[in-house]
Amino acid sequence: MIFAKMTEKHVAQVAELETICFGTAAWSEKSIASELNNVLSLWIVAVEEEKVLGYVGSQTVMGETDMMNVAVHPDYRKQGIATGLITELIGALKKRESHCLTLEVRASNEPAKNLYKMLDFEEIGIRKNYYRNPREDALILRKEWQNEYSGN
């Protein structure tokens, strides 16, 4: 398995995986494709033999990155793919102007919360009723690091 920056050849599979993992809340293929032309965005895919097993998407503004999406195909979960994707993303962001990564997670999503805790994310707040279907609060998590270029 390799981790790579998402390209046009990955978009259809990422969109399909979005639907599998997020149903009606999934991003459209067109929306995902538009991220390729967004200078603020960085999406990374986990690929094995041309098959996208998972992905992570982010946007960075003024040194702060928001992780918008992360998903792993249900058949490939619990194999360290999500950990690898987030670690790869952070490594790439450290080489850019970013100094932190922020995300939202469902308050009830224990597997994801455990993953983020293992990766040293800290809870910094709550967004009430952030999620729909079912309605639920989101925990806001953040990880900060030293920027490799500025020393910040």
Sheet/helix structural class: alpha+beta
Instruction: Give the overall form.
Output: globular
Ranges with pLDDT <50 over ≥5 residues? none
The sequence of SSEs as H and E is EHHEEEHEHEE
What is the terminal separation in angstroms? 33 Å
Largest sheet: 7 strands, mixed
Could you explain how this protein is built, in words?
The protein has 152 residues and is of the alpha+beta class. The chain has four helices and seven strands; from the N terminus they run βααβββαβαββ. It is 29% helix and 38% strand. Strands 1-2-3-4-5-7-6 form a seven-stranded mixed β-sheet. A hairpin with a 4-residue loop joins strand 6 and strand 7.
Layout of helices and strands:
Elements: E1 2-5, H1 8-22, H2 29-34, E2 41-48, E3 51-61, E4 64-72, H3 81-94, E5 100-106, H4 110-118, E6 122-131, E7 136-144
Parallel strand pairs: 4-5
Antiparallel strand pairs: 1-2, 2-3, 3-4, 5-7, 6-7
